[in-house]
Structures are given as structure tokens and as C-alpha cells.
Amino acid sequence: MPQESFAGQLETFLNVKGFENVERSVIQCYASLWGSRAVTYRERNRVPHRGSRWL
Hints:
The protein contains two helices and no strands. The protein has about 55 residues and is mainly α.
């Protein structure tokens, strides 16, 4: 959404090495879509939780 900034809403993992660690980090990143920070941001800005191009 052009008028919204989603910076900082998802978890970020840097310098991840090894397949298992990469796999775990990807899962945690996707899971962070439903973390309290992301959910609260969407609710405050009236961004739908589903059906948007981001989710």
C-alpha cells in the first residue's frame, strides 16, 4: 500500500548460516506477520489482515 510503511514490522535475521538455521529463520520471519507488532500496526492503520497484497 503506497500510503503505508511496513518498515520494522517483520523480524529480520542476518548472517544466518546452514540449511537448518536458514529454514528456521524463514519460518520465524513469516510467523512474524502475526506478531503483536505487525498485528497492532495493521489494526491502527486499518490495513486488512488478509486479502492485501502483503499477506
